[in-house]
């Protein structure tokens, strides 16, 4: 039950209403017995409290008058290790064990012997719970309560708890329902863990492109859990400036616009807002927990638990690099130890996200820089290729041209349009040399590192003297390999027609000179013979 409800006083007057009017059968009280049936109960503080209640002034009557069913049910509830409570009779008079005291909160000890709807019990809850109690009584079937949130007073403060239990009908020896047995099993740890895990999982699946994206995503995920995060603000570090500047993310939770805590674009050594405390947290690289003092006046704390007692400052550090700070209001209805578990998880996860985002940004900057350098290098290479005296070409395995410079088209004697056809280069080679070109092409396909060959073209070359002759090119080719596979060929070629003509001219002159010398020597031999 809600422990934050104002504590009531024990009922001072015995009800004069006739129990039979409620419709719930009540066993006629038995005659007092010679022995005190409560003496067998263990001597504990709670049992002494139970025995000290003036039961004669309650609807159940004095202890000696309780019937066998009520006594047995009382034995059971007081011995139960779970939080348990009997709700007996038409007014659902409470008898509960020591484990239930924490759930009774300020209603204890006045709740003992009071009806559920009495002022000393839970009159504000009775209209909501009564239909469930009546249904259990009328059907004889237990009514389950699943994962019900309850504010429990224990460990000196109001604590957020969750319980699963049921209201189980209790019958007497005649089969009549006399009361309900309410036993609870605490599932607080499980539900809080599930709630936090859902939030942490949502954070971990966020974008990691920029720090701004990460901040917005983290704050959006924190917003979904108002119980564990009662306020939040986040700083990131701008490392591109000479002095590290704290930049406040625009999405903050629970802090109204214009609040004194919303300090933006300040250096890390500033004395404004919470920045000095951020610097302290940075020095330890661990969460700094402080009490929510006057600086937090005006904060619109989220969640039903009221203002947070403590605030945690998380230095978002990965390795030795600081990426920012996350400032959180903690759950006021959980132990500091439990809150610390969440802040440590958030510290680890958000730091990793920011580190990844910054790493991605820096990697993209480096990549863009390399692309710019490569683009400049490509421009230089293209300039060189376009103005080189040699022809250059890139050909796919199907014979189509990927690119070529103007010198290539000039050398083979084709326009760019005609040269784009598959194996157009082979069509320009004279028939006698075509088998040489095909042989070298296949040798490259088979993995030869490079080829070098002279080929005669159908294009004619006009020498300085004499008749036109087929142009001659010197070609150097090699395969282009990607992922271990030959995907295309590249080649450089030079028009050596003039050189070949000059070589042939010189060879012919040498041959003619040699022939003239031979003829001269032959003539001399003939003349000498005649003279003799």
The gist of it:
The protein is built from twelve helices and 16 strands.
Verbal overview:
By secondary structure, this protein is of the alpha+beta class. The chain folds into three domains: 19-186, 2-Layer Sandwich (Beta-Lactamase), CATH 3.30.450; 192-363, GAF domain (Beta-Lactamase, 2-Layer Sandwich); 391-495, Beta-Lactamase (2-Layer Sandwich), CATH 3.30.450.20. Helix content is 36%, strand content 24%. It contains twelve helices and 16 strands. The protein has helices spanning 45-52, 68-79, 101-104, 126-139, 188-204, 211-223, 275-284, 336-387, 406-412, 416-419, 431-445, 497-531; strands at residues 84-88, 93-96, 143-154, 157-171, 177-186, 231-238, 245-248, 266-267, 288-291, 310-318, 321-329, 391-396, 401-404, 451-461, 469-482, 485-495. The strands form three sheets. It has a six-stranded antiparallel beta sheet with strand order 8-7-6-11-10-9, sandwiched between helices. Strands 2-1-5-4-3 form a five-stranded antiparallel beta sheet, with helices on both faces. A five-stranded antiparallel beta sheet has the order 13-12-16-15-14. Mean pLDDT is 86; it is low at 1-33. This is PAS domain-containing protein. Residues 13-31 have a biased composition (Polar residues). Residues 1-33 are annotated as: Disordered. Residues 1-10 have a biased composition (Basic and acidic residues). InterPro entries: PAS-like_dom_sf (IPR035965).
């Amino acid at each position: 039950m809600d422990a934050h409800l104002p504590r009531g006083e024990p009922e001072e007057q015995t009800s004069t209403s006739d129990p039979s009017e409620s419709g719930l059968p009540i066993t006629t009280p038995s005659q007092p017995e010679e022995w005190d049936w409560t003496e067998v109960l263990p001597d504990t503080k709670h049992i002494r409290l139970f025995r000290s209640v003036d039961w004669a002034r309650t609807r159940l009557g004095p202890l000696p008058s309780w019937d066998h069913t009520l006594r047995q049910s009382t034995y059971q509830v007081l011995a139960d290790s779970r939080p348990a409570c009997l709700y007996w009779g038409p007014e659902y008079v409470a008898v509960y064990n020591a484990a239930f005291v924490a759930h009774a909160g300020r209603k204890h000890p006045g709740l003992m012997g009071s009806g559920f709807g009495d002022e000393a019990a839970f009159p504000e809850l009775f209209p909501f719970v009564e239909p469930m109690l009546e249904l259990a009584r009328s059907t004889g079937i237990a009514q389950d309560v699943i994962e019900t949130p309850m504010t429990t007073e224990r460990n000196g403060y109001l604590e957020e708890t969750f319980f699963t239990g049921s209201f189980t009908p209790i019958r007497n020896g005649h089969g009549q329902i006399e009361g309900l047995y309410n036993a609870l099993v605490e599932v607080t740890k499980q539900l809080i863990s599930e709630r936090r895990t859902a939030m942490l999982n949502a954070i971990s699946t966020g974008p990691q492109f920029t720090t701004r994206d990460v901040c917005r995503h983290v704050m959006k995920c924190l917003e979904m859990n108002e119980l564990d995060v009662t306020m939040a603000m986040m700083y990131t570090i701008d490392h591109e400036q000479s002095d590290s500047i704290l930049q406040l993310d625009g999405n903050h939770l629970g802090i109204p616009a214009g609040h004194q805590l919303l300090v933006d674009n300040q250096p890390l050594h500033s004395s404004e807002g919470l920045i000095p405390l951020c610097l302290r947290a940075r020095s330890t690289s661990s969460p700094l927990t402080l009490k929510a003092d006057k600086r937090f006046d005006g904060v619109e704390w989220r969640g039903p638990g009221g203002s947070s007692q403590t605030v945690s400052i998380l230095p978002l550090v990965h390795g030795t690099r600081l990426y920012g700070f996350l400032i959180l209001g903690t759950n006021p209805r959980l132990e500091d130890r439990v809150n610390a578990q969440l802040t440590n998880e958030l510290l680890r996860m958000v730091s990793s996200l920011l580190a990844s985002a910054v790493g991605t940004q820096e990697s993209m900057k480096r990549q863009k820089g390399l692309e710019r350098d490569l683009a400049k290098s490509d421009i230089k290479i293209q300039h060189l290729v376009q103005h080189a005296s040699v022809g250059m070409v890139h050909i796919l395995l199907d014979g189509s041209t990927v690119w070529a410079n103007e010198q290539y088209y000039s050398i083979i004697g084709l326009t760019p349009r005609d040269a784009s056809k598959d194996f157009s280069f082979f069509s320009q080679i004279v028939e006698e040399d075509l088998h040489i070109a095909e042989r070298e092409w296949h040798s490259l396909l088979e993995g030869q590192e490079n080829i070098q060959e002279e080929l005669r073209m159908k294009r004619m070359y006009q020498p300085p003297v004499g008749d036109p002759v087929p142009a001659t090119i010197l070609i150097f080719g090699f395969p282009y390999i990607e992922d271990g596979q030959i995907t295309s060929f590249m080649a450089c070629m030079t028009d050596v027609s003039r050189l070949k003509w000059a070589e042939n001219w010189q060879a012919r002159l040498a041959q003619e000179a040699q022939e003239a010398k031979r003829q001269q020597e032959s003539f001399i031999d003939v003349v000498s013979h005649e003279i003799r």
